[in-house]
């Protein structure tokens, strides 16, 4: 509420946007909607007046990013944080209510074909080459194995400017610029768990009856469930990211049995719920996100982000451009995307425990110690601070799961939208009712 | 959700004075009717735009098809055929009806006692208003925040369990307090009891005190007075309150999700799941079915009472 | 004899009422206690120190979300809903005092508006806007969605009011030569004013805390309940409880003011010789 712009109503936003559009016609008539950097003086002035509306979950719709962007580029970003359900809805059903969509890649698989987003020209993305190869080829290093599920590169490109079909290879047209991603695993309360946790199957260990939890977002929860079932040896999957009906049935049967036996204390849906469940001791083992573990720890409560033998379940998010963007606004959006990848945001996200898309640029904004702790798995030399300056880890701490390569190199599968998605969701509902 | 307005009015009001036909109305029926239409026009327009049309849209969309990211105009019965054949549907409705029944019994019992206390034992209007207001203040804090705060209240290490432990009433924390059917029904009772209290209180205030005096003089015990005099006369209020509670519970989804820890389901929750996965036609079919069930239940309750007369 | 039996019943019921109030305040008590968490404290027990940190934090920029903007929006929407509810219910309430064709239908429609599950209204309005390609916003679609919830309450209260309203006053005014508007403005309105405070309070409160109807109709910008819900997608802090504590305090203040207003109006009316203000 420190920023006046936040108080703008949609109506005011619209009228100013209308004004901006006419300004773009006047100013841009001679120039055409060419590259931003070609005409710094005229555009830079205009861009300062542009307001872009971005929505997404609270994970990355951070006010600090909007504020810094205003400072650096003059562009005003209005951030609206929504819960994960509302994000998909908004993206598909209200295409005019946003300019920039901050969505996950598996949601992109559903949203992009609806034609509400426009692909972005790779040649206008100044830091394209610095983007981690996971988002281009699916491989972290040339000899990595591509993980199962909706891997970002499979929905990262389309064939052409007006195409809505995903390309198999990197093209000149990108659907989302990647922003954050991570490998998720089980979080545990080491003070309340006596024996070592090594595998996904430990989630269903009888020691934790009434003290376990999983994610209640079907597309993500099913992947956690699949990791557990595979680890138990009860189900074998051809492709966890694209299960057959039979595989879905078997997976759900295992989960339902556990649920009926009272294994789960609760299912969580928002970041905050997972933190509260863990911090209050309601749950001692659950699928979690890295910053949620950090949030529990910052309250002085022991919590470990336990690496597991089977590997991580990964997810990634990115920014997409709304179809209706054009002219000056579109140019401002590109300017924003380029700024986003230029390092400051990357460092901010890395410091929260996520990974950012362009590691090289982010590195410039982090101290050697921070880089060593977060990215290289080295012990911290000094206290590690969160982006808002609180001590997150004491000197000497080592990050759970080690270095970037160790974590992102052990991805078992990505969050997915399957061919049998509707069937899966019905089964999930049955499971919740059971 | 503050019912003090109605209460304030009821507390002040006397017996209804009937509706004698105005002589002016008798003289110029057509003119009067015209004025009536003008006066109800805003209400009619708002309800048409935001109630009737949306519901018709839902009915239409329930016959549409859908895929991952869009809804496609069509006339298919898939949504209904799944709804009517799936074992889940029955489970969902039974579960939801269970919550509605439990919430109804509890809100009715508690609501009746509270209303009785306020109507018959608290004599001064000012006190009645003040006590009502006292009950409504918790509802001014956002429901989402209140829901979150149940966890530290009812949780394994929450206030209630700590109190029970330190009093020596239990030797280990009670787990069923949170993320259970118990928690869901508790939250419903918490949220909706006042919706029961207000109409019952309203009915009680309209009971002629002479009737009670007469019953007592005829030798009736307090219990007999409540059972044979007060309760029958409160029927309309009970019916109105029941309509509130039952419909609110039947359509709820957020309470079930948060208090059930995601492990319990209701019709509303299943619908909201479908909405969140963009399966609007399926959700619309669910909605039509739910609406039909709720309307049937309300119609049954309306048979007991003419709501309009009894206000 | 009777007096004694009554007093036993009184004490039992009073105790029951006390328990009921305690029950209502249960969650509020945790909110108030936990809002004084230390700077490192979380949303659950144990307490991590004691401070007023989160009250100060309420007025600072949050990591995610924006209390100021959404709060303003919710208040504006609440006031808008309140004003429309007030005018429309009084007007419709006046109309329903006479018979007119369609009255019964409209009455049942209003009752239907009350019982149709909220999520359905949200879905329906959201669908219409989505199919028509209109842009939902808090001041259009969400306003409409809220009105379907507040208007029935408003109208029911007006029914209760007019069922108890003595037409003799109006007729006296008319006999003395007052026009329809004058009668309404100087006779009816002052008499029903205290109840209008109730309608207004209802309208505002129901709108201010509405969630299910707003979820799909709010458009680009969130109302306060939606914003809080959105904030739970990142680390939320006891600042939420600080907000709850302040709201509770604020509510006490507002309600006291309303109570006082109603009492003053009642007194004034009593002075002017009406019998409508007297209790039973």
UniProtKB/TrEMBL annotation, chain A:
Keywords: Signal. Transmembrane segments: none annotated. InterPro entries: SBP, TAT_signal. Pfam families: SBP_bac_8 (PF13416). PANTHER family: SPERMIDINE/PUTRESCINE-BINDING PERIPLASMIC PROTEIN (PTHR30222), SPERMIDINE_PUTRESCINE-BINDING PERIPLASMIC PROTEIN (PTHR30222:SF17). This is Putative spermidine/putrescine transport system substrate-binding protein. It comes from Tistlia consotensis USBA 355. The lineage of its organism: Bacteria, Pseudomonadati, Pseudomonadota, Alphaproteobacteria, Rhodospirillales.
UniProtKB/TrEMBL annotation, chain B:
Residues 12-23 have a biased composition (Low complexity). Keywords: Cell membrane, Membrane, Transmembrane, Transmembrane helix, Transport. Residues 93-301 form the ABC transmembrane type-1 domain. Residues 1-23 are annotated as: Disordered. It is found in: Cell membrane. GO terms for biological process: transmembrane transport. CDD domains: TM_PBP2. GO terms for cellular component: plasma membrane. Belongs to the binding-protein-dependent transport system permease family. CysTW subfamily. The chain crosses the membrane at residues 40-64, 76-94, 100-119, 131-154, 174-201, 280-305. Pfam families: BPD_transp_1. It comes from the Bacteria. SUPFAM superfamilies: MetI-like. It is a multi-pass membrane protein. This is Putative spermidine/putrescine transport system permease protein.
UniProtKB/TrEMBL annotation, chain C:
Residues 71-265 form the ABC transmembrane type-1 domain. Its main location: membrane. This is Putative spermidine/putrescine transport system permease protein. The keyword Membrane applies. One of its GO terms (cellular component) is plasma membrane. The chain crosses the membrane at residues 12-36, 77-96, 105-132, 138-162, 183-206, 239-265. PROSITE patterns: ABC_TM1 (PS50928). Belongs to the binding-protein-dependent transport system permease family. CysTW subfamily. The keyword Membrane applies. InterPro entries: Bact_Polyamine_Transport (IPR051789), MetI-like (IPR000515), MetI-like_sf (IPR035906). Pfam families: BPD_transp_1. It is found in: Cell membrane. Keywords: Cell membrane, Membrane, Transmembrane, Transmembrane helix, Transport. GO terms for biological process: transmembrane transport. It is a multi-pass membrane protein.
